[in-house]
Amino acid sequence: MTRIEGEITIHRPVEEVFDFVADERNEPRYNPRMLDVRLISPAPIGTGTRFHAEFKKVRGTLPMTIEFTGFERPRRLESAARSSMVDTVGSLTFEPAPDGTRMRWSWEVQPRSFLRLMPSLVAVIGRRQERSIWGSLKRLLESDVGDAVDPANVLVAYASAHGSTKGIAERIAARLDERGARVDLRPIGGVDRVDAYDAVILGSAVYGQRWIEGANEFLRRNTDPLATRRVWLFSVGSFGDTHRILGRLMRKEPKGIDEIQRAIHPRDYRVFAGAIERHDWPLVSRLFFHAFGGRLGDNRDWPEIDAWAESIAHTLDAARADPPLVGAQQA
């Protein structure tokens, strides 16, 4: 069993901080590793309330059940969270401070599976993650985003060599704009900072099994701010029919993508087919491409891209529009 404790001061009233945290459905707004949360017990929120959560792993997702075992608005929130990898029980306490709310956390963490062999590593990672999560909550609430009902401010950035990736980025931006988001579409070289955006969608063409260097440089400069925002990533290759040999080979993720996902915990990562024109490749490369079943031309799957953009829009809508429920203890 590992104990993880800490505290933070948030410059907002204690009732406001408590109510926002007590609705677990708000957590994807400040925890980049949490993809989705659903209320699975009757409202209002209080002792006994249960949520189903999905966490982002390097590959796949980790389901978790969260139950409130104690609820004393606006002073104390006790919970038990259980998954196949770790069980966590403990509490959050909230008390008025001269400049806002002092929030403290105290967790007992019980690793499961192979993690039981690494308690020290679990403790180090757990403390780091808690500081990051609650620091992101502080920034969110103090920036008034917690109260905002304005459209999400979204950056769609792309690194494109011949225009295929740019076209996909334009399509995604158009779909988000249709759903009411404020979209800023830019080439990756035209973006210096991401601080002004609620969400970031970043795509790059893949050459030599790697992202274009400009995209990697952008990630290196912005790793920390991206880790506290909602981020979606996509790669674009030149392949076509993925049922053929070359398509399956080229559909593999580019080198370094695992490290990128561990650093910023994107909500989702996709690989899309791109386009290749005859004049873009020399004769020898075209012959090799054809020999293994490759297909020249525009292989972009627009329905697939539209569906992905729609899923992003749905996530942004849910984060903005779902107001926190208050417990029966409020009077």
What features would you describe in this structure?
This protein is of the alpha/beta class. Helices cover 32% and strands 32% of the residues. It folds into 2 domains: 146 residues, 2-Layer Sandwich (Alpha-D-Glucose-1,6-Bisphosphate, Chain A, domain 4), CATH 3.30.530; 166 residues, 3-Layer(aba) Sandwich (Rossmann fold). The chain has 8 helices and 15 strands. The strands form 3 sheets. A 7-stranded antiparallel β-sheet has the order 1-7-6-5-4-3-2, with helices on one face. Strands 8, 9, 10, 11, 12 and 13 form a 6-stranded mixed β-sheet that branches. The chain has a two-stranded antiparallel ribbon with strand order 14-15. The radius of gyration is 22 Å and the shape is globular. The chain starts with a strand and ends in a 10-residue tail after the last helix. The relative contact order is 0.14.
